# Entry
Amino acid sequence: MTNNEQTFWVVYEKFKPHLFMVLVQVALVLQYFLVEASFNNGMDPHVFVTYRHAIGGIVVLPFAYFLEREARPKLTMTMFMGLFLLPLFGIGLTLNMFFASLKYTTPSFVTSMINTISSITFIFAIGFRLEAIDVKSPRGLAKIVGTVLSLTGALIMILYKGHTIQSLKGAPFHLGGKMAHNNWIKGTILTVVSCISWSLWYILQAIIVKKYPAKLSLTAWINCIGASQSAVFTVLVQRKPRAWFLTSSVELCCILYAGVICGGLLIYIQIWTMAQKGPVFVSMFNPLGTILVSMLAYFVLGEQLHIGSILGVLIVIMGLYLLVWGKEADRDYKSQESFPAHVEEKDCKTQIQTSVTEEA
# Structure
């Protein structure tokens, strides 16, 4: 292997979590627009959440069963309660409220609100001692300032519109439909509560992944239990049997994409990254989704932009870079608890060999 190849793989391994989280945001942005198009065609948000995770569970379950037979820990009652609460916060509550709010607002609005999750998660992580801050160090201050800037940018995008930048006349697509986004108060309340629940989901993931290291199996549990919880919730709030039927190819494509990619692959990637870097690292890439949504909405879908949105995006980018810079000073999230077993074993063998050499 040449020096250039070695350098490439070293850099790749270092920034692999960053790359994965960028890909997660790109995939989620596509889902937002597919979901809005499906909701415009009449698909129920709660039915969508149920189908999404049912498909995600079906896709992941065979891989988890065969590939992690030896890796799965014993399922105790305490562990099952944790596995029940994790999808309750992440799917049963968060996604049902989140996608319901998308029915009353727009993708640009809900992705702007998502920017507050990193700040909320940061506060929760400090309370649960999952995040350490050294206020005397520049990088510790950078994490605090970056969090505040991300939250400030999100609030500017939400509360301040400013001058309107007209949409492009030649935009290739328009998401037309019968939905009228006219209940912003209800949509805002649902979005805010879902963001708080979403932050708690990140914290629970960080706690449970330490006790349940079989990540494919954990992904399968989240999808299967989450789909069951969402199905019960849907039956209680949506009593029309016809709501469960898909009426267009757009709805079918949306559910397949959301189930396989977002419900299966992205949750697994997020759990893997959570184990490596912690909950704050995962959540702080959410502002990137806002930027991508705003760009696509303007250049591709012909939506209007506002000066407040552009200003908020710039502030969010500054905050994101400060957070990333501050987090780079942290050790890998796994090593904050203890050294990996193979490292301890290797060090122990080295010490024994050294002692034998000295005695000889």
Observations:
- Residues 3-40 form the longest helix (38 residues).
- Residues 15-329 form one domain.
- DSSP finds 13 helices and two strands in the chain.
